[in-house]
Amino acid sequence: MAAFAPNSALVFSGRGATGARSLSSRSIAKPVAINDQSRARKVNVGVRAATGSIREQAGRRAPLEKSTLFNCKYVPFSGDQNEEYSIDDVIYRSKNGGLLDVQHDMEALAIYPPEYWKALFDERVGKTVWPYGSGVWSKKEWVLPGISDDDIVSMFEGNSNLFWADRYGREVLGMNDLWVKQCGNSHTGSFKDLGMTALVSQVNRMRKQGKPLAAVGCASTGDTSAALSAYAAAAGIPSIVFLPADKISLAQLVQPIANGSLVLSIDTDFDGCMRLIREVTAELPIYLANSLNSLRLEGQKTAAIEILQQFDWQVPDYVIIPGGNLGNVYAFFKGFKMCKDLGLVDKLPRMVVAQAHNANPLYRAYKTGFEKFEAIKAEPTFASAIQIGDPVSIDRAVYALKETNGIVEEATEEELMDAAAEADLTGMFNCPHTGVALAALKKLREAQTIGPSDKVVVVSTAHGLKFAQSKVAYHAGEIEGIVGKFANPPVEVKEDFGLVMDVLKERLVQ
Ligand SMILES: *Cc1c(COP(=O)(O)O)cnc(C)c1O
């Protein structure tokens, strides 16, 4: 009972505390009042002390009254009950070589009612309070509850906008409730930041505990290495990235170079890089940051929670995610599922994974009703971040799809480039992966699987500017085998008034 004693969690210091306190109690008073008046005063969501850095201010802040009860651990993804590991262990796989999953103490989290969590998350959105200004760490109790605020490495990632695709939905697809979650509007230009803040924070903590982790490393199709190198650089931790030579975009290559990573450009594909880094991390004290690593998914799942929050806890009918290694679809599922299990929402969306036809092992398995899965050799695709033939998280993805009555769709190179370009004409600037998801949406809409007023979220996984080369090639008509239905090449004109007028008359006066 002691923890319920009035004011036990309220430790304010410095100027401005009273104002902040009355603000937070006012904004949460209504929902919390259903249980216990005293709780209203104790919701303590980043009250600012006036002095010191935001990190120091966080150090003086009292924790949520029940937060010591929250915890998480690693368990085998297969559900084996007899095996578990501390989150502070350096471990990637279960005893039998299977995937691990981060499991939260849901009973402890359920001590607080849904209204409490909603109010808490809403209260923290988009502030500069350490670390809650981050869209990931604003959900800290559901991500890594045991980590000290001081160990967190964050760039206030997340809180990305939901783009209402008004014109594209209306004019192209005959839909009125279509949204694009702009996960690429982020520090390094892809959703990978959401996972990397969780992983690098935990590595930071383990290094402080004295664990022998000389560096963090990953194999990457480009975006993971960009995110890893940025977060490692922010924390002052050495990083090493293995990249498939000539298979990533220039922007993706220059990011880890700029952030000071040791960059190994290897003459193979992603799957080859992955094999090598696994062998290397078995020999050297390098912490493996691949999506095999379940810590990252804890950060990535917050994008799903954020979508629900942005819709004021309305659940979309469909969420479409471009998938390669297939960790992200499971991360989104986990975010949605936690919200349902803790009563913040009452259902799950149908999840759709969109794959490039050239790298479609999940799509092929889906066509057999998930009876059988076979790794394939992925062929080149403009959606280079999902050119993966042997996805690490295949079991996770199949689970998420089965639990949500999910769908898998695929898109050819022409379909994905066309979809990205057509949507760009309504104000977006899509990367090819988002193009894959948009092409999948178009097919599901044409098949009437998705209806005109269904609430649909397309997850945009990276910023289009990272993939300017292929977009330029599309508009220049330089891609072999693709007509470029929506190409809009620049018109080259000599410096001459008459010639400029000729072009304008031809194009404008019809
Ligand atoms: C990593 C990545 C994906 C695929 O995510 P998975 O978890 O591997 O399925 C999709 N799009 C972009 C831009 C990515 O960087």
From TrEMBL:
CDD domains, A to Z: Thr-synth_1
PTM sites of type N6-(pyridoxal phosphate)lysine: 192
Domain Tryptophan synthase beta chain-like PALP positions: 153-461
Record key words, sorted: Amino-acid biosynthesis, Chloroplast, Lyase, Plastid, Pyridoxal phosphate, S-adenosyl-L-methionine, Transit peptide
GO biological process terms, semicolon-separated: amino acid biosynthetic process
EC number: 4.2.3.1
Any GO MF annotation of the entry: threonine synthase activity
Pathway: Amino-acid biosynthesis; L-threonine biosynthesis; L-threonine from L-aspartate: step 5/5
Recorded catalytic activity of this chain's protein: O-phospho-L-homoserine + H2O = L-threonine + phosphate
Main location: plastid
One Gene Ontology cellular component annotation held by this UniProt entry: chloroplast
Coiled coil (UniProt feature): none
Subcellular location(s) per record: Plastid, Chloroplast
Keyword Secreted annotated: no
Pfam families in UniProt: PALP (PF00291)
UniProt KW Amino-acid biosynthesis keyword: yes
Cofactor field: pyridoxal 5'-phosphate
Class of the enzyme per the UniProt entry, highest EC level: lyase
Oligomer status and interactors: Homodimer.
Protein family: Belongs to the threonine synthase family.
Function of the protein: Catalyzes the gamma-elimination of phosphate from L-phosphohomoserine and the beta-addition of water to produce L-threonine.
Stored NCBIfam families: thrC (TIGR00260)
Protein name according to UniProt: threonine synthase
Organism: Micromonas commoda (strain RCC299 / NOUM17 / CCMP2709)
